[in-house]
Amino acid sequence: MTRENRKNEHVKLAIKPESIQPVTHFDNLSFVHNSIPEMAWKEVDLNSKFDDIVMNLPIYINAMTGGSNKTGEINAELADIASATGIAMAVGSQHAGLRNDSLVDTYRVVRKRNPKGIIFANIGADVSIEFALQAVDMFEANALQIHLNAPQEIVMPDGERNFKGWLHQIEQVIQAVHVPVIVKEVGFGMSTETLHLLNDIGVKYVDVSGRGGTNFVWIENQRRENKEYNYLKEWGQSTVISLLEAQEFIQSKKMTIFASGGIRNPLDIIKCLSLGAKGVGIGGPILRILKRDGKERVIEEINEWTLQLKSILTILGARTISDLQTCSIVITKDVREWCELRGIDVMRFAHRSL
Ligand code: FNR
Questions:
Q1: Where residue 138 sits, what CATH number does that domain have?
Q2: What is the pLDDT of residue 3?
Q3: Is 1's pLDDT higher than 70?
């Protein structure tokens, strides 16, 4: 199986409804409604900043494609969508382009189509410093994502089996590249313990990318002849739980946290922002609309979501993204139980005020 075929298979499987992890914990979070918002819709400011990067909207298209001709075409369409809506985007893993010159254009196309856009490069935690520098240079990336995907590799029939040395490699890359480095998961979420390890080596930006959306255990298991890993399909922490696990770092401002994994609607985005995420990544849902209805429909959907984000901030009485962190939110059921057992204070969220 070549890397190119694998990329195409990932897309084919990721657009199937069965690839979506059904358990999302967003339903365990409820905002406390306040009948007197005392603000106007037009006052809402959706800007989000990290390092020197200003995102007009607190959402971005997460890493998915590039590395084969077909997925290069998808990258071109995603870049058009990012350009038309003004949102940031990431390309999929650049390993294929770093090893095969003929595939470089399947990534570079995102800069060609969106010269002024905010674009993230993407590599794994095992690549050399030289490759990391090349990945950023490939299209003058504004930031570099490094993905952590051990469960995916293990279930992948032709996947990596040695996960030694990642921390050391990430530490070296952060020191070598001149753009912000965002360490991300791929839909399995993160724990406080993982975040401590990353913080200790100088990681400043993390996308917890949790369970609840695109499920790479399911996707890779479908690619196995005997589908032996079906039982592993609920592996990992949800996006909501990952954000709660990250509270120590969010509150102390030691790290800037992004969220992704299982975002279904504008309210899910608002919930992530309210738990302290700086921005929210969307992957599979955008790909599915793109493949089904085309790029114009995705642009319409993102524009509609933007209006709805403003509407929800208005009823919450929040003018900015950071105001959302002062809106009271009640945490119930499974998420509450998890937090109690992990020593995460849920009461604090139920009693916040502007
Ligand atoms: C991904 N994702 C991903 N992530 C990454 O860091 N490098 C990659 O190459 C890929 N490739 C990829 C391909 C496809 C087809 C999909 C759908 C996803 C993971 C992605 O960035 C994100 O972390 C997860 O998909 C969870 O978000 P959603 O899809 O639930 O919104």
A1: 3.20.20.70
A2: 84
A3: no
Ligand 1 atom closest to residue 19's alpha carbon, by position in its atom list: 17
The answer to whether position 198 is within a domain reads: yes
- Ligand 1 proximity of 11 Cβ (cutoff 6 Å): yes
Token code pair at residue 281: 């990544």
Alpha helices in the chain (DSSP H): 3-14, 69-85, 95-99, 105-113, 129-137, 150-155, 166-176, 192-200, 216-222, 239-245, 247-251, 266-274, 284-293, 295-316, 333-342, 347-350
Structure tokens at 351: 């009693």
Mutate to test the pocket of ligand 1, among 20, 60, 64 (most ligand atoms within 8 A of CB): 64
Q: What is the DSSP letter of 79?
A: H
Q: Is residue 353 part of a domain?
A: no
pTM: 0.98
320-350: per-residue pLDDT in tens? 999 999 999 999 999 999 999 999 999 999 9
With 90 as the cut, is the pLDDT of residue 192 above it? Answer: yes
Residue 354 has pLDDT above 60, yes or no: no
Q: Which residue among 214, 219, 220, 222 is best mutated to probe the pocket of ligand 1, counting the most ligand atoms within 8 A of its Cβ?
A: 214
Name which residue sits closest to atom 18 of ligand 1, judged by CA: 64
Find the domain containing 223 and state its range: 3-23+54-294
